[in-house]
């Protein structure tokens, strides 16, 4: 597989945007099979752009909105759009997007999409690249809902991607494929063929010196009703958190929680979690991911130095793995949490300026800042991988 990453500033004039994209891709040889991934700011008229791109590109195009992006040759960008074109003679791609999802239909819709793409692909995929929507109301589909539905349909094959983002309005998130744009859906691409993948993630949260931990004693999916037998809102009030309103996603973006989730046997996986809503009547809290009963919830801290070092850590580890593999990796996709974006504030550009020059020649990288990340994680004892939904995390997929 080979890839080309393109960044353009133009998002108002789609004819000019398409012209720039084609021009920057003119010397890139397309093989038998290709896939394009687009990350763009929410104002972009994507259907018009797709109509123009499809005049020359007869391969799948998927993507989502994002508050900011990372791109080889351009570094960090808070506007515009980035495009990665992957192409190969010995790899195959199948891509699609669901209809609008609800709590009632999402399992069926995700399964139907996966089965359709799997049949189109005609062989077992090596990885599923997927982007979904942010939780914007208590009755919407949570990040873990999408992940579990895809995981069940995809026979536990690795899933990488995340949730679309916007400029913290939580109302303009979109995913798209072909000429179809969906507000509350999921886009996915199945990738198969002669390829190897590596995935890594690093959590950007520090636990306290004497971490305060609670047991989730009553919950339903991503809603926590009780911690240590007490109503969750009462526990948050005791810890001096914001508890006087319903929509608290913005208030808790820099207030991390780390949950240890039990899997089969004695396996345990630690992931970050962001609190999004409070039900003040039930005194419960809704997280962006699942919170099973029996899980251990710790209150952490966001340390700016930890956030900076976490990218260095995962990038160095990934490059060591790539160099030692003997395989020619050409392509890296990454997903960075919006909370990391907020934590770094004016120093956000340093992420790309300081660490991206470490990338060897011949490897392209593109990424987006998300409201939640999809990436496999290992349990704390046996090292078995599970597809997981993360917050406060930087994730990478090399192909």
Structural summary, described in words:
The protein has helices at residues 14-24, 46-53, 106-121, 143-153, 232-238, 249-252, 304-325, 338-344, 350-355; strands spanning 2-8, 33-40, 61-65, 69-71, 75-77, 81-88, 91-97, 127-132, 159-163, 175-177, 180-182, 187-193, 198-203, 206-207, 213-220, 223-227, 230-231, 257-262, 268-273, 275-279, 284-287, 296-301, 331-337, 364-370, 373-378, 385-390, 393-398. It has 399 residues and is of the alpha+beta class. The strands form 4 sheets. Strands 14, 15, 16, 17, 18, 19, 20, 21 and 22 form a 9-stranded antiparallel beta sheet that branches. A 6-stranded mixed beta sheet has the order 1-6-2-3-10-11, covered by helices on one side. A 6-stranded mixed beta sheet has the order 5-4-24-23-27-13. The radius of gyration is 20 Å and the shape is globular. The model has no long low-confidence stretch (mean pLDDT 88).
Largest sheet: 9 strands, antiparallel
Number of strands: 27
Average the pLDDT over all residues and give the rounded result: 88
Number of helices: 9
Low-pLDDT sequence parts: none
Given the C-alpha coordinates, what overall shape results?
A: globular
From the N-terminal CA to the C-terminal CA, the straight-line distance is: 8 Å
Rg, please? Answer: 20 Å
């Amino acid at each position: 597989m080979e890839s080309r990453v393109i960044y353009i500033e133009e998002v108002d004039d789609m004819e000019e945007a398409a012209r720039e994209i084609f021009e920057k891709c003119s010397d890139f040889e397309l093989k038998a099979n290709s896939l394009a991934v687009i990350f763009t700011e929410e104002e972009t008229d994507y259907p018009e752009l797709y109509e123009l791109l499809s005049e020359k590109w007869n391969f799948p195009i998927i993507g989502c909105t994002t508050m900011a992006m990372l791109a080889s040759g351009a570094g960090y960008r808070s506007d515009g759009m980035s495009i990665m074109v992957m192409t190969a003679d010995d790899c195959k791609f199948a891509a699609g997007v669901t209809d609008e999802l609800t709590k009632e239909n999402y399992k069926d819709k995700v399964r139907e999409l996966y089965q359709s793409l799997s049949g189109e692909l005609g062989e077992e995929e090596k990885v599923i690249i997927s982007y979904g929507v942010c939780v914007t109301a208590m009755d919407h589909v949570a990040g873990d809902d999408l992940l579990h539905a895809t995981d069940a349909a995809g026979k536990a094959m690795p899933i990488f991607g995340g949730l679309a983002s916007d400029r913290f309005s939580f109302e303009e998130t979109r995913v798209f494929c072909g000429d179809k744009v969906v507000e509350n859906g999921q886009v996915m691409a199945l990738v198969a063929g002669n390829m190897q993948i590596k995935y890594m993630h690093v959590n950007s949260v520090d636990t306290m010196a004497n971490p305060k931990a609670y047991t989730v004693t009553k919950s339903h999916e991503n809603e926590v009703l009780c911690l240590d037998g007490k109503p969750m809102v009462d526990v948050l009030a005791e810890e001096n958190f914001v508890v006087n309103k319903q929509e608290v996603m913005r208030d808790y973006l820099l207030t991390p929680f780390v949950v240890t989730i039990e899997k089969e046997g004695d396996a345990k996986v630690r992931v970050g979690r962001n609190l999004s809503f409070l039900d003040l009547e039930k005194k419960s809290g809704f997280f962006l991911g699942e919170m099973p009963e029996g899980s251990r919830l710790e209150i952490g801290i966001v340390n700016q130095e930890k956030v900076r070092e976490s990218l260095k850590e995962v990038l160095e580890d990934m490059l060591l793995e790539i160099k030692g593999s003997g395989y020619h990796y050409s392509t890296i996709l990454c997903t960075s949490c919006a909370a990391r974006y907020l934590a770094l504030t004016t120093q956000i550009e340093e992420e790309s300026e300081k660490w991206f020059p470490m990338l060897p020649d011949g490897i392209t990288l593109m990424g987006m800042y998300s409201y939640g990340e999809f990436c496999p994680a290992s349990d704390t004892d046996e090292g078995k991988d599970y597809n997981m939904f993360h917050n406060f995390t930087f994730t990478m997929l090399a192909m």
